[in-house]
Amino acid sequence: MEAQAATEDVPMMPPEGAVDEGEAGTNSPSPDADTEMDSAETDKDDTKSDAAKEDKDDVKSDKEDTKETLSVEERLTLAVSCKDAGNDSFKKADNSDARTKYQEGLEHLKDMAQDTHGLSDIKKSLYLNLSMACIRLAKWFEAIEAADGALKIDKENIKARYRRGVARSRFGALEEAKEDLLEVLKKEPNNGDARRELQELKPRLQAAKEEEKKQFGGMFGKAGGKGLYDDREKEMQERREKEAEAKRLRRIEWEAEMRVRKEKGEEEISFEKWDEEKTKEKEKADKEREKEREKKQRESGSSTAKRPAKEKKKKEDKDGKSEDELDEEDLKIINETKKMGYCYFRKELTEEEKAMKARHVPQRLEETAAASGPQGGQEGGEAAGGAASGTVGQSEWNARGTTFEEKDVTSWATEAFKTHVREATASMEGPTGGTLKARITKVKEVTGDASVAVVRGTKRFLFDFHLTLDWEAVISAEGEGGEEKKFKGEVQMPDVASASADPSGFQMEARIKYKGTKPEGEDKTNVDKLLETLKQSVHKCVWEFVEEMKKKYG
């Protein structure tokens, strides 16, 4: 029986296309999985549904009674039989029945002593097969739980790790899926299925990061790698971490609720749908609380307004005179207090106070420094000139640039950037004669953003572009009758930013690709040198763009 238990008839990988049944990343079942719903879930008739539920409870009760009367050996044998029956259904593509058989097999092993001989092998095999059947049925959460069960028994199991990675990927837990698939490749570098799944996952991860960048991103970089606005960036990072932690806690709550639903035989829903329902419930509760609070405030305001009138009337009736009636002496005291006293509403000043106030009028520091400092000296002149271009704000209300202000100039900057980069060329003499020339033939793509910001009284010209260019290199003929050689390709510059636009040295990363024929031997050496010169020419064009940006917005 041990040999039979250790045998797993379900392959690690599903047949071509099976894993992708149903909508990727959702909890909806595959359209082909028309047998995965229990009769109690699909029957629309209430009477039949109740009867099916009662029968299900009776069967469950009978199973528990049977489990108590069977020996350990008999329960192990039944579990293996369920596994074999499930494998037969799986081979016939009856994934719903296979899932049911594997679950029944695990039910036979429930509450059995962990040190039972042969238990671990049978249980692991059932969990692995159940995970595969759930992947076929697009029941991603169940597939993850089944793979977790196998990993608790054997944490190094490659099949369980891979299947959990696939299920997590479809479920939408992209980072966790990436971790599982990388772990598989770490142990089996030649695993083509895991490598292919990881490649399909990468663009989805990138799209998720881009979406996050749109929501929270901005241009915070400057030379040296430090943020221009550290406090703002730190605040946004903390907000992202809080939101991620809140989402993690909600996911834990959802998992717990789905387990309860599963035990009760109720319908399970995706995390996204559950989270949306919870958000609506919270908004509704918040509105109810707000209405209740406003109601109490209105009632409280009404009673407060009535109370002084009643008290005043009682006092008038008692004394025979109103508190508002002041005698001549009281009025004199109040007027004197207004003129000379401590009251905050005092506005009249004595002549002495007026003279003192005139002597203490605030003076601008710049004016004082200009009056007492050197006239036209290099030290004073350069100190003012260095900040002159940056002390003017973007708006009239911010003429001195003391308030942070940022203006988006992406539209203009993108067109200007294309114009400058398109002019990049390079040429050099060949080692044995002839001329080598290269030029940019097309600006395929320029994406990113640009802005002009006023920070602490200084203007900053910021941009961050991703650049893709087509280039052409020509090796002219050496002597008469020689053959001219042309090579074409593409250069990608993923990080052309204001921090790297430094004329003193080339700092931008560039990735060169060839299209069509590639140079060989001496030609390759010469073309590589030529393209390096072309990259430097692109860098020069970027700096010319920076100068134009400064002139336009400086």
UniProtKB/TrEMBL annotation:
Keyword Cytoplasm: no
Region (Disordered) location: 1-74, 193-247, 261-332, 367-395
Record's keyword terms, sorted: Isomerase, Rotamase
Catalytic activity: [protein]-peptidylproline (omega=180) = [protein]-peptidylproline (omega=0)
GO MF annotations in UniProt: ATPase activator activity; peptidyl-prolyl cis-trans isomerase activity; protein-folding chaperone binding
Source species, domain of life: Eukaryota
Family: Belongs to the AHA1 family.
PANTHER family cross-referenced by the UniProt entry: PEPTIDYLPROLYL ISOMERASE
Name under which the protein is recorded: peptidylprolyl isomerase
